[in-house]
Amino acid sequence: MVTFISSIIILILGYIFYGKYVERVFEIHPDKQTPAYSKQDNMDFVPMPAWKGWMIQLLNIAGLGPIFGAVAGALYGPVAFIWIVVGCIVAGGVHDYFSGMLSLRHGGAQFPMLVQHYLGKVIRVFTDVVSVVLMVLVAAAFVAGPAQLLSSKTPISFFVALVIIFTYFILAAILPINKIIGRIYPIFGVILIVMAVSVAVALIFSGKHIPEITIHNMHPKELPVWPLLMVTISCGAISGFHCTQSPIISRTVKNESEGRKVFYGAMISEGIIALIWAAAGMTFFGGTEGLAAKLQSIGPAGVVDQISMELLGPFGSILALLGVIILPITTGDTALRSSRMIIEDFMRDKVKIKPKVLMIAASFAVGLPAFLLSTIDYSFLWRYVGFSNQIVATVMLWVSVSYLLRYGKKHLVAGIPALFMTAAISVYVLYAPEGLSLPYQTSVIGGSIVFLIVASLYVRAIIKHADPSRIPTPTRDLYIS
């Protein structure tokens, strides 16, 4: 119990103090006009209040990630608390803040455009592909569960449920952001927050023993904490999907001073939600072996439903039902919207098509494969979501490092988590079944080699930018159309 409550307090303090430090390193300019005004088009560039931007950002990045991922991560035991707290404050919050604010500084640019500007065209092409693939996988993975639940609770068939949800996805992708997303997301946000707070309060007063902190690996199959936990719990710690979503909201931010609340704040909020569900997963079912058996028999949605029902009764069951249906849909729709924006940016100067036709074509180009993939096994999709997700997160952190080096700022705030994630994803790619499936020791050695190569390139870049004469024009002039 002490560990659980302390972890929530540390996350809040992290937002207050470390988030403020990150903001100072970035150096905001509240007097500059943001793209929400300078490029206002009543489609994607629309000024929104900070509270609404935070709410939409939270739903965009959260969905069921900090719930299902945290429950799965609970299999490793209380070490998951450490990863959520440290990862969220030092890595995830930094990642989300810089992805949102750099997009804002570059006129609402999508993530691949930032990659091209700071890391080069070659890496940009790679990032374009990985980003769109990631969002197609997310849309597919986050629609299958709701469709299955709808078909089990109503007379609607699974296929018809898929069609209904994807029809909404397409509409949300092509209609102005303030027409659907801006109007209904605050309602969905209330459901997410009430669900998390209710479970947390009920858990604290339930009399059940919430495990205290330990670094002991409690996974029933003895799977290694490093690096599997860093991929299992991504939403709630650090997730590359977030940097594909931040440009949606960067185009609505009214003032740079709101960035910490909207971007860093949404990440901290997601971390708190992940903590709550990780604690619930560890507390119920008699330990990690019981949790593993439940996940195997009734799946993550069933686990969430059973915990909610036991803690909150019929009210909890309704919340769980709404959450498992609504929350993944609010991630899938913006995944399609973001991928539509990326494809538009990539194709705009290469094909002569009317903007509205290009927008609709891009939406269907990502919507159709996501629809087809949604019919296959969810756990298979989720493994590849985690795989591609953390690759994107690592690239975004290196974009942040490049920006900080270029403008003579304190680069270690992004450099340390970038090095950490480089090591983690390198070992994961070599070790995981969806990667090369090499022996663990071989994977650690191979990942260490990759880490040392990247670290040496980082040191070289530090030396290169140590000369003050290499620092370009002030950040105040960084806005790019």
UniProtKB/TrEMBL annotation:
<feature type="transmembrane region" description="Helical">
    <location>
        <begin position="184"/>
        <end position="205"/>
    </location>
</feature>
<keyword id="KW-0812">Transmembrane</keyword>
<feature type="transmembrane region" description="Helical">
    <location>
        <begin position="412"/>
        <end position="431"/>
    </location>
</feature>
<keyword id="KW-1133">Transmembrane helix</keyword>
<feature type="transmembrane region" description="Helical">
    <location>
        <begin position="357"/>
        <end position="381"/>
    </location>
</feature>
<feature type="domain" description="CstA N-terminal">
    <location>
        <begin position="296"/>
        <end position="423"/>
    </location>
</feature>
<dbReference type="InterPro" id="IPR003706">
    <property type="entry name" value="CstA_N"/>
</dbReference>
<keyword id="KW-1003">Cell membrane</keyword>
<protein>
    <submittedName>
        <fullName>Carbon starvation protein A</fullName>
    </submittedName>
</protein>
<feature type="transmembrane region" description="Helical">
    <location>
        <begin position="443"/>
        <end position="463"/>
    </location>
</feature>
<feature type="transmembrane region" description="Helical">
    <location>
        <begin position="315"/>
        <end position="336"/>
    </location>
</feature>
<feature type="transmembrane region" description="Helical">
    <location>
        <begin position="58"/>
        <end position="76"/>
    </location>
</feature>
<dbReference type="InterPro" id="IPR051605">
    <property type="entry name" value="CstA"/>
</dbReference>
<feature type="transmembrane region" description="Helical">
    <location>
        <begin position="262"/>
        <end position="285"/>
    </location>
</feature>
<keyword id="KW-0472">Membrane</keyword>
<dbReference type="Pfam" id="PF02554">
    <property type="entry name" value="CstA"/>
</dbReference>
<feature type="transmembrane region" description="Helical">
    <location>
        <begin position="156"/>
        <end position="177"/>
    </location>
</feature>
<feature type="transmembrane region" description="Helical">
    <location>
        <begin position="82"/>
        <end position="104"/>
    </location>
</feature>
<comment type="similarity">
    <text>Belongs to the peptide transporter carbon starvation (CstA) (TC 2.A.114) family.</text>
</comment>
<feature type="transmembrane region" description="Helical">
    <location>
        <begin position="225"/>
        <end position="241"/>
    </location>
</feature>
<feature type="transmembrane region" description="Helical">
    <location>
        <begin position="387"/>
        <end position="405"/>
    </location>
</feature>
<feature type="transmembrane region" description="Helical">
    <location>
        <begin position="6"/>
        <end position="22"/>
    </location>
</feature>
<feature type="transmembrane region" description="Helical">
    <location>
        <begin position="125"/>
        <end position="144"/>
    </location>
</feature>
<feature type="domain" description="CstA N-terminal">
    <location>
        <begin position="3"/>
        <end position="164"/>
    </location>
</feature>
